[in-house]
Amino acid sequence: MYRYIIRRLIFAIPILLISSVLVFAVVRSTFDPLGGAAINPRVSKADIIRVKHELGLDKSPVQQYWTWLTKFLRGNWGSSLLSDRPVYPDIQSALVNTIVLGGIATAFSLLVGVGIGVYSALRQYSWFDHFSTSVAFLGLSMPNFWFALLLQIFFGVYLTKWLHLTSPIFYTAGLSQPGSSGFNLIDRARHLVLPMLVLSVQIIAVYSRYMRASMLEVLHSDYLRTARAKGLKESRVIVRHAMRNALIPLTTQVAIDVGAIAGGLIITEAIFEYPGMGRYFVDALFRGDYQQILPWMMVAVFFVIIFNLAADILYAVLDPRIRYA
Amino acid sequence: MKTSIPFSGGPWVLKSWSKDQAVFTRNDKYFGKKALLDQVTIVPRTDQPTEIQSLLSGEVDAIYPQPSDVSLIDQVKGTPGVTAKGTDGAYFEALWFQLESAPLNDPKVREALMYAIDRQSIIDTIIKLNNPNAAVLNCGFVSFPNIGNWCKDQQPFSQFNYDPAKAKELLTADGYDCSATPCTKGGAPLTIEYSTVSTNTRRTTTQQLLQAKAKDAGIQFKIKNYEAGILFGDIGPHGKFTMADFATGGSVDPSITSSFACENIPTSKNEFAGGNWNHWCNQQATDLMHQTDKELDPAKRLQLFDQIYQAEAADFLSLPLYVLPNVGAWRADKIGGPVDAYIPSNLGMFYNMNEWYLLK
User: Fold this and answer.
1) How far, rounded to the nearest angstrom, does the alpha carbon of residue B142 sit from its chain's CA centroid?
2) Contact map slice: B 133-172 vs A, CB within 8 A
């Protein structure tokens, strides 16, 4: 198993390098970080050439990439091309924010999705099963930007107006109240609820469908009949024997999903002005700031690789029949 | 941004800054009118519906958004205590032509195009939503009716009103067959590529409107839009467009040399850093531009500019559309003072925040 993990980690290195080369090539060939300055009549041609030289943008693309890579490998994540802000603290804070939002949404979705899936499977073709199936398809087909706007209007505007409040129960944007400093748990929670709900709707729908299908498969297996024949309590049969096995495919799916979270929850973060990895990426991309985009991409790809590996390992841990050489 | 050095912007001191908020406190050492508010926090809202919800829900007290294809004034109307105002701003919105790109490299086609664009319909359908007093912009590039005196004597583009019959006439005289739509020449349809920023709904709605109107003039528009970074970072500087809709800023005392002089056409020699994205080279106009940069007498400068503006219209350089409206909305139940005083100016709505105060 250890050799398998080490081998997978070594394979991750060329993947990271190839990804960074591709992203660099796309960003540098399509975006000019100083493009906006060119249409400003107050910026002279000489100034643009000077700034390009100062930022190293007049060097060949190979030289630009190599300079970035050698610094990155030495632990220097560099600074933004346009704002000169160090990249590392910004990515660190964006990553933490995204993991908090994505983590809470995933945990909440797991709790609700697994519950719905198990109950639907146990009461197959009941009114609850039909209802939850319909709601799951509604959740899957609903565009999250539209659902986000509905929540913003309902909680932010209408509920505030109807209840004659001075501020909304759940905030529609940002991470904390404007002007506040320091960490306030209640304030943070009021800002997290709406983006979390938007993310959860689709995840709950997916997980509940997964869980239902998986449970139905397990419920009809021979070993459950054996467990019942041995006189085990029904609750023990369901929880210990059925649910544990039914959770295996879902667990690997969750591990892969969590890995993808680091890549940013782009639409949700953009709508709720949530300062996470998704918004960081979009801001940097539209400015053509490859010094910000490349480290972001390294972190995102790294998380995907690690959590894909975790999914494989978890699969082997949960199902003793599977062994990696 | 370096935050170790205390930064003062007149009546305010920047207390703290992050990507999520900038906090300003009163500058007690300011020589002018001291701020009435203790502190003001500026927060980013990049998504416009979110920006408006933030105001309506009371999370923020004032917003100053980009005008879109929906009326901010109508959107806030239903919420008691919220007020909005829209006026002319300080950005010059135009349809910019790349004069070396076919078919706009043919002056006759450009002339016909000037009559195929229904500018008044844009004003009536889209711009008046946010600026009830909006009018078609006929000033020379880049001057404004309400900024300085640069557009007082003459309005060189006022001759170009929507006239599809005249556009067809001009095209027919140029060898086009306009018996069917679009007109054709040698069997090839008259198609003009029309680009703008894909995420800007005001501009994409304008496209749809103009596309339908231009058909009546025998001209077909092929829409090809880009993200702002690509349009302004690659397509524009490299001249890879034919006609594009975007805005450029103006100033009280203009100089247009960097935008329209022959030597400022972007080329590989100048690393595509020139601002003359139109690729317009009129040597006489360029000489006049150089003279304006040396002339200190405003009256003489105006005479020189008037000659340049005439040349712009005569060469069908591009077509001005409108002055981009400035719109602002605020919680009139929370803040008082001359909140709307600077909405029309290029200084922006928040310029006089030091004169605002809390009502309760």
Assistant:
1) 10
2) 142
Question: To the nearest whole percent, how much of chain A has pLDDT over 70?
Answer: 95
For chain B, positions 229-288, list CB contacts with chain A under 8 A.
Answer: 229-230, 232-234, 236-237, 246, 248-249, 251, 254-256, 258-259, 264, 266, 270-275, 277
Backbone angles phi, psi at A84, to 5 degrees: 65, 10
Q: Which two tokens stand for residue B197?
A: 């920023």
Select the residue from B59, B142, B147, B318 to test the A interface by mutation, using most A Cβ atoms within 10 A. B59
Position B134 in a domain: yes
Residue B95, judged by CB atoms within 10 A of its CB (0-12, 13-18, 19+), counts as buried
**Alpha helices, DSSP H, located in chain B:** 48-56, 72-77, 107-116, 119-125, 164-173, 201-215, 228-230, 257-260, 283-294, 298-314
Nearest to A315 by CA among A226, A233, A254, A229: A254
Q: What is the CA radius of gyration of chain B?
A: 23
Same domain? For B104 and B127 the reply is yes
B56 CB near a chain A CB, below 8 Å?
A: yes
Q: What is the mean pLDDT of residues B241-253?
A: 89
Report the SS3 class of residue A256. Answer: helix
Asked if residue A239 belongs to a domain, the reply is yes
Sequence-ordered list of residues with C-beta below 8 angstroms from that of A260, at least 6 positions apart, any chain: A303, A304, A307
Tokens of A78: 């560099």
C-beta neighbour count of A103 within 10 angstroms = 13
Residue A277, min C-alpha distance to chain B (Å): 13
Burial label, A125 (beta-carbon count in 10 A; 0-12, 13-18, 19+): exposed
Burial of B98 (0-12, 13-18, 19+ CB in 10 A): buried
Are B23 and B119 contained in the same domain? no
Which amino acid, residue A88?
A: Y
pLDDT tens profile A130-171: 999 999 999 889 898 899 999 999 998 889 888 988 889 999
User: Do B63 and B13 fall into the same domain?
Assistant: yes
> Which tens digits make up the pLDDT trace of B75-96?
888 888 899 999 988 889 999 9
Numbers of helices and strands, H then E, in chain A: 15, 0
Write out the residue range of the structural domain in which residue B44 sits.
8-87+326-358
Domain range for A123:
86-323
- Substitution target in B18, B24, B50 with the highest count of A β-carbons within 10 Å is B50
Secondary structure E strands in chain B: 7-9, 12-17, 22-26, 39-42, 62-63, 82-97, 184-185, 188-189, 191-195, 220-223, 243-249, 318-331, 335-336, 357-358
pLDDT-derived band at B4 (thresholds 50, 70, 90) equals: low
Task: State whether A175 and B20 contact (CB < 8 Å).
Answer: yes
B188-189/B184-185 β-pairing: antiparallel
CB count in 10 Å sphere of residue A304: 20
Mutation site, A97, A152, A293, interface B, largest B CB count within 10 A: A152
